Amino acid sequence: MKYYTGIGSRETPDDVMIKMTEIAKKLSRLSYTLRSGAADGADTAFEDGAGSNKQIFLPWNNFNKRTEGIIPEFNEEMVRKYHTKPDYLTVGGWLLMSRNTNQVLGPNFDDPVEFVLCWTKDGKASGGTGQALRIAKDYNIPVFNFYYGYKDFAEYMIRNIMMDK
What we know:
This protein is of the alpha/beta class. The protein has helices at about 15-30, 40-50, 75-80, 90-105, 125-140, 150-165; strands at about 1-5, 30-35, 55, 115-120, 145. The chain has one domain (about 1-165): Rossmann fold, CATH 3.40.50. The protein has 6 helices and 5 strands, in the order βαβαβααβαβα. The two termini are about 20 Å apart.
């Protein structure tokens, strides 16, 4: 299986979310499976395009009124390792940050994604998305932040598709 993470800010601009949905549709046709977290904004845009090729991780049942998805086992160690200020998190924040680990490393933390697609409002590893981006960096997983456009991701896909043939 080929997996990617599609995440980002709840404040992702509409034009970027439209592009995320288009990209998710194309990746689905290329047999990629989305990993995301059911948040408003970027997560939902990717999910809208992924069709049935998706693994959606929920921090708790009924998150964003969602009952279908994977509620992963809580992992305090990963939250502490990658969050910049874990002791300031609320209970909900801990659960959200733990679920972000699964978006990048899979249900059992042993199946990393090929790449991460995202949009952050400052182009950096900020907000809740930042947790996933720090994990990806530590695992040498390429991150394509659409804050900077789509060119780098397009070039990455062209290189990898050409190598497969």
